[in-house]
Amino acid sequence: MMQLFEKQMNKCINAILTIVFLAASLSVSASTKELDRVITVVNESVILSSEIDALKRTVSLNVQAKSMPPDDILQQQILDQLILEELQLQEATRLNIRIDDLRLDQAIEEMHRDNKPSIKLLHSELKSNGISWSQYRERIRREITISEVRNLQVRSRINILPQEIESLAAQLNEKNYAEVEYRISHIQLRLDENADKSEYDSVVTHANELVSYLNAKQDFTELALANSKGPKALDGGDWGWMRLEEMPTIFADHIGNNSKGSIIGPFRSGVGYHIIKITDLRGLKSVAATEVNTRHILIKPSIILSDEGAKRQLTLMIQQIQEGKKTFEELAQQYSMDSLSAVNGGSLGWQSSAIYATEFRNKIDSLQEAQISEPFKTIHGWHIAEVLGRRQADYSDAEIKNRAYRMLLDRKFNEEAQTWLKELRAGAYVKHVEDNNDYN
Question: Which pTM value belongs to this model?
Answer without folding.
Answer: 0.49
